[in-house]
């Protein structure tokens, strides 16, 4: 027996798992208020928090079988389209004027042109109906050119190298007022596969381009669709296995609307090239969205004049990005829908997950220009394991009245989730340039890296803050979380026109490299713990600010917040605020802390409202005046010696301040970033009954990092003072 096989460009997944039911929500709301609750955990626990987890998006089984692509060429029934008539010689096909009806399963080859007619499939047989389009041009002014009323499965094959087209009219004529189907130029009530090495152009002037009320698979085909409403719709599922698919739709681009079965309603991109330009959502599914290969390019919202709140890819359930590339352009902006006494905002979003979003290997680029736009948004958790993510959101933020009539605000965000966010690996570049814009906004925990490894993360915000109501502002924060923020590894570069890292609960540094090159306040939370890693902060106000948010009883009262320095290396450099400011306590037990204070009083390198407890570690801090250090020194259960050194005339920026012992071994060799009059020093090497000398000026051949020298030879300085530590206290005050 002679057979013909159509070999496809990519291998389709043949088996999928089953997923449990989940709730659906259209948009993740963003809370813009800056108030922090009064509870605190002052343990300074150095354990890693649990790593955020995203659910696995496993889909249901499809109708695909290997036998779909193998058939007996000798059994082919020929259907010839002849302008206004149809020629056929088989009893399996009946012809009524310009309408041909296939009544039996089997293989059919269609050729020619049909100016105004229809090909109908209507069979009760269990076999496959296979239709080979071999250079076909079909049009219908009143219905779908191809209409599958009934069949077990239909395979539409595009003949090798052939060009085929289907075009419907702008209005359909139905037998009764109760009927509303078909509603697409290629419409099937059964499972449908489109495959082959030819090309198909579909123009849906009535509503949709291609639609199946069951499952729909596109494989190894070149398909171009233009539609008045949705481009391609597979109710139970829509699989793009391979080939090249181009869609321009005034409604949704690709759609799978089954919301009754938790294992269905999914869109699965396995390979090929997919280009979608849509007026509404480019890809919209009521189940899961998965991608494991291929190249997806999306322009969501530009196909119509109204571009409000269009989504690039939206799934009501889980989203899994395991390979391939996704590029999304979002011209749309926030849409305020009337609700209660005000409005409920919906946002233009690149990737919108109704539950969890997982990225593990895909390359993603999202560019949003509209007001309040979101790059990636999850109603549940968002976890990035690997791959590359580049997001730019330039839209501005603004105020509005929410459903209770209260003034609220929206702003753009590159990454946002109502649950936890885990940035565990990959390369991420996030830029928010609009007013109030956020880089990462986590409604739950924010975890960066795991077990010493992590992402290469760059976050930039350049917009201004704006007033929401009274003294309430929407701030452009680089990294923000309502829950715990933990850094376990990776490399981070942060530049922000307001906060660099901000958590309403706590911030813990365990490992990794964090560089905040620009900020108003670098790191802010109730409890801030430095266990390990390397942290560098440049800020115009406070470098580190431990605060509960609102201090009762005056600005100098202890609000219960705390900064813990247990290990690692941290340098703070501020222009006008405190390098380290705690509205509660400060506890230093290990690590290295280098602080460059501001240029002038009243701010200092180190400010605290509670108790400064010192039991270990190395600290060098420079301040402009003696006010804070002169009045406040380590207390409580302090057990390590420390010195407050006050100069009669300041040590200029870039000049050396040095303390060495009688043998010339340095305790510290340091260059302040600004003219400083007060230096605070503590080191495990400081001992009683040892003579120490203070030098200024000179030069050092050692390695200079953050103003601190290590190694090398010191020479040429001026001896200013010789002193010994106090025999009655851990703190010694020295004037020179």
From TrEMBL:
Alphabetical list of InterPro entries matching this protein: Cthe_2159
Chain intervals with Acidic residues compositional bias: 28-49
Signal peptide start and end residues: 1-21
UniProt KW keywords: Signal
Ranges for region Disordered: 27-59
Protein name (database record): Uncharacterized protein DUF4353
Organism: Breznakibacter xylanolyticus
């Amino acid at each position: 027996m002679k057979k013909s096989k159509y070999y496809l460009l990519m291998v389709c997944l043949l088996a999928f798992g089953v997923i449990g039911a989940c709730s659906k929500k259209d948009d993740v709301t963003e809370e813009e208020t800056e108030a922090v609750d009064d509870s605190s955990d002052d343990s300074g626990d150095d354990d890693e928090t649990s790593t955020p987890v995203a659910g696995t998006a496993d889909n249901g089984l499809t109708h695909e079988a290997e036998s779909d692509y193998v058939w007996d060429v000798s059994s082919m029934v020929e259907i010839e389209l002849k302008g206004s008539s149809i020629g056929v010689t088989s009893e399996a096909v009946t012809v009524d004027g310009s309408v041909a009806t296939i009544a039996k399963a089997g293989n059919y080859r269609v050729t020619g042109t049909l100016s105004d007619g229809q090909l109908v499939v209507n069979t009760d047989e269990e076999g496959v109906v296979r239709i080979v389009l071999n250079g076909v041009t079909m049009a219908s002014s009143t219905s779908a050119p191809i209409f599958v009323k009934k069949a077990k499965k239909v395979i539409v094959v595009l003949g090798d190298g052939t060009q085929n087209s289907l075009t419907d009219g702008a209005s359909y004529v139905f037998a009764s007022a109760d009927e509303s189907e078909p509603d697409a130029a290629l419409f099937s009530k059964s499972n449908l596969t489109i495959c082959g090495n030819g090309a198909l152009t579909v123009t849906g002037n009535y509503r949709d381009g291609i639609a199946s009320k069951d499952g729909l698979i596109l494989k190894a085909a070149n398909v171009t669709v233009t539609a008045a409403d949705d481009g391609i719709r597979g109710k139970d599922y829509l699989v793009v296995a391979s080939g090249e698919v181009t869609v321009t739709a005034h409604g949704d681009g690709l759609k799978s609307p089954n919301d009754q079965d938790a294992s269905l309603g999914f869109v699965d991109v396995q390979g090929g090239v997919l280009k979608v330009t849509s007026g509404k959502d480019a890809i919209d599914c009521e189940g899961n969205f998965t991608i494991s290969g291929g190249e997806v390019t999306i322009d969501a919202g530009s196909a119509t004049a109204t571009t409000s709140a269009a989504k690039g890819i939206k799934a009501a359930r889980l989203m899994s990005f395991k390979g391939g590339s996704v590029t999304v352009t979002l011209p749309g902006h926030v849409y305020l829908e009337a609700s209660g006494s005000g409005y409920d905002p919906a946002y233009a979003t690149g990737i919108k997950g109704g539950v969890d979003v997982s990225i593990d290997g895909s390359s993603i680029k999202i560019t949003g220009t509209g007001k309040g736009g979101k790059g990636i948004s999850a109603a549940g958790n968002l976890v990035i394991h690997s791959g590359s993510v580049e997001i730019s959101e330039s839209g501005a933020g603004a105020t509005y009245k929410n459903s209770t009539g209260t003034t609220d605000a929206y702003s753009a965000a590159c990454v946002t989730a109502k649950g936890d966010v885990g940035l565990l690996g990959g390369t991420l570049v996030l830029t928010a340039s609009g007013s109030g814009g956020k880089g990462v906004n986590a409604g739950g925990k924010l975890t960066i890296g795991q077990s010493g490894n992590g992402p290469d993360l760059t976050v930039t915000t350049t917009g201004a803050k704006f007033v929401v109501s009274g003294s309430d502002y929407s701030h452009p924060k680089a990294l923000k979380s309502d829950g715990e923020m933990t850094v376990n590894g990776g490399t981070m570069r942060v530049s922000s026109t307001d906060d660099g890292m901000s958590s309403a609960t706590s911030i813990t540094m365990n490992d990794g490299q964090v560089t905040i090159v620009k900020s108003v306040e670098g790191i802010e939370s109730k409890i801030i713990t430095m266990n390990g890693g390397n942290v560098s902060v440049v800020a115009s106000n406070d470098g580190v600010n431990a605060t509960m948010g609102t201090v009762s009883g005056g600005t100098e009262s202890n609000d219960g917040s705390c900064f813990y320095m247990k290990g690692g290396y941290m340098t703070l450099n501020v222009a006008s605020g405190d390098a380290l400011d705690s509205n509660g306590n400060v506890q230093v037990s290990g690590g290295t802390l280098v602080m460059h204070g501001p240029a002038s009083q009243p701010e200092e390198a180190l400010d605290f409202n509670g108790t400064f407890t010192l039991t270990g570690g190395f600290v060098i801090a420079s301040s402009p005046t003696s006010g804070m250090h002169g009045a406040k020194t380590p207390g409580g259960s302090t057990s390590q010696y420390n010195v407050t050194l006050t100069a009669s005339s300041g040590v200029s920026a870039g000049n050396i301040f040095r303390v060495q012992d009688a043998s010339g071994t340095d305790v510290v060799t340091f260059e302040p970033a600004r003219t400083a009059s007060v230096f605070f020093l503590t080191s495990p090497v400081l001992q009683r009954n040892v003579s120490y000398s203070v030098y200024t000026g000179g030069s050092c051949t050692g390695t200079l990092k953050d103003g601190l020298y290590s190694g090398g030879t010191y020479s040429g300085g001026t001896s200013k003072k010789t002193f010994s530590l106090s025999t009655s206290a851990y703190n010694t005050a020295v004037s020179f």
